[in-house]
Amino acid sequence: MLQRTRQQTDGRVVQIDLTPEGARLSEKDPFEDIARVIGGLPQADQATLTTILMSLSDQIAEDRQSRSFGPCSKCRYLRKSMGLEDKETVYFCRFMSEPLPLSELDMTCMDYKAGVNRV
User: In this structure, is residue 24 part of a structural domain?
Assistant: First the structure.
């Protein structure tokens, strides 16, 4: 139902997509309706909802003494790299000790740690 594909340029990144069978089954998924409605909300409301859901997820993970997850853009390990002449702004993940391109800031990270970053 799911297919995993490792990104060629960054071995840390694994993309997960639905197989055709998974896509067929997801058509009956009530969460698709929720996602559609959320997608129709104004950007500000989507951002507020995202913040609330991330806070709930972080609290549940803390209560269960388990790992949390979230986007690199909200992680305390994220730092902006300085002095790079690349066309794309590059950030740095202090947890992985590796550069992180701007295009990957909204990807979900399993090493995510909620908190204030200094971007």
Answer: yes
Under 8 Å between Cβ of 114 and 58: yes
Residue 21 lies in a domain: yes
Q: Is residue 29 part of a domain?
A: yes
Residue 3, C-beta contacts closer than 8 angstroms, at least 6 positions apart: 16, 17, 18, 19
Contact 17, 2 (CB under 8 A): yes
Structure tokens at 17: 């997509």
pLDDT in tens, 56-84: 888 888 888 887 778 888 888 888 876 55
**Residue 82's pLDDT is what?**
60
CA–CA separation, 42 and 48 (whole Å)? 10
Q: What pTM value is reported for the model?
A: 0.50
